[in-house]
Amino acid sequence: MATNTIEMSEKKKEQTATVRKQFVNKGIDLSLLDAGVSLFSSLEQALKRTKNDKSYIVKGIEYRLNLVEKDGKQIKLAPRYALINVIQTDNELWQLWIKQQEIFNRTGLEADKPSIHRPNPDGHYEIGNIAVLPLGEHLQEHAIPVIVFETDAEKLATYRSQTAFQDAENVSKYRVEKMNKAFRDDEISLQRKQQVRKEMTDKNKVYFESLT
Question: Are 80 and 17 in contact (CB under 8 A)?
């Protein structure tokens, strides 16, 4: 744990130094440095998702925030320059990011942290398809219903997200991820898969109809 904390601290220092240098070079107010660092970090995470997340790779989602127009041609800059490109190209997003960062600074709540959101989830990370959302709303938007089956107790429960499931069932995140992996790796017969899918669909249908 201590090692991870030190590594995170060093990473934050590197990011802060990089953003400070870019702000000075472009004449951007250094009082906005914390907003710049959080946006820089969020952009880095977005780039990693396009490279490492299988769902992004399968969809062919690309990171295009470091592409700039010059002499009628698109030039691909180093990823670290995506920050300045976004700030200079999408001032509305930058102002919204600053406001959300101020909210987070006041509350200290993780749910209030600003995060990069793609209005079109099948679209690329590019100017015109990025927006600002508080992290709590962002996570809720991408929450996937979790179904719990307990045949002995004849229990069938629906939760709006994995986090809600963990809290309600008092199950650690590690155990949930281990269960997910076991489920993915298990060679369940096609018939059983179809049966579970139908039960999940029916249960979710009843649940979401009850919300309307």
Answer: no
